[in-house]
Every structure is written in structure tokens, then in C-alpha cells.
Amino acid sequence: MRLTRYTDYGLRVLLYLGMKREGLSTIPEIAARYGISENHLTKIVHELGQLGHVRTVRGRNGGLALGRPAAEINLGALVRQLENDLSLVECFEVGNNCPITGDCRLQKVLGKALAAFLGVLDEVTLADLLAQPAGMMRMLGLGEAPTTPVA
């Protein structure tokens, strides 16, 4: 299973916003810290905003912040929202053309594997990933980690 860059970058945005608890962040700031495209991040942030994960403030002093507490952002749900296709192989798709679909055991095994993958993510929230952010904060140049845990 491989997540798209879209989902990867979405997770990174949320991690960044979770670590930078005070003040607003900007797309150029986040893009520069991760070395990724501002244009690509703009699309991702737009969707994260529509989903309620990111709050956007327009205007000269605008920016981004988490749209809900980190403890309410479940990774399994987020991956399901951002990934447009979790079909691991053709037989997962409607109208597939694989001639052995009806009797192949691979589909069932891969289905269980996907369910297990998502099941692990369902047990994790953004707050869990931010429990000890000091190392990530240093790498991103965000200064000292806060002493209170993320909600």
C-alpha cells in the first residue's frame, strides 16, 4: 500500500499546524519548510479546509491553523477522505476485466490487508503523532516544543 503524495502532504500540513500552536501559518511558510510546491499545497489546504481539518483566515494577516483539536483528527478517516482510490488491484474496481476474479483468493487476501492497514490508522489521531514533537520541531525550525500536550 502506498499513499499518494497528496495524502502525504496533507498529513505533513496537519503535523506542521499541530506543532505550531500559536499564530497562523502560511502556505509559502509550510512549503518552504518541507521543500514542496506551493501550488500543490494550495489544493491540499483547500480540501483540508473543506473537510474542517484546517481553518483558513483571509487577508493581509491571514493564514492557516488546525480547524479542530488534533485529538479529533483520525488518521484512518483522513486517509479515506484524501485518497481517491484505495483499489489495490484491478479486481477491487467495479467492472474489472480480470478473468479470474470470481475464483481468485488474492482479492480476499488483499482486502484483508487493506482493512488491516486502515484499521491501524483508525487507532491513531493527529494528537498521537504530536505527543513528543521536539525532534520534528527542531527539524522544521519551529523552536522549542510546548510543555503541554496537544489536545
Automatic annotation (TrEMBL):
SUPFAM superfamilies attached here?
Winged helix' DNA-binding domain
Q: Where does the record locate the signal sequence feature?
A: none
Q: Which residues form a coiled coil?
A: none
Q: Kindly list the GO CC terms recorded for this protein.
A: cytosol
Listed Pfam families:
Rrf2
Q: Which GO terms describe its molecular function?
A: DNA binding; DNA-binding transcription factor activity
Query: InterPro entries in the record, alphabetically?
Result: Tscrpt_reg_Rrf2, WH-like_DNA-bd_sf, WH_DNA-bd_sf
**What keywords sit in the KW lines?**
DNA-binding
NCBIfam families xref list? rrf2_super
Q: What is this protein called?
A: Rrf2 family transcriptional regulator
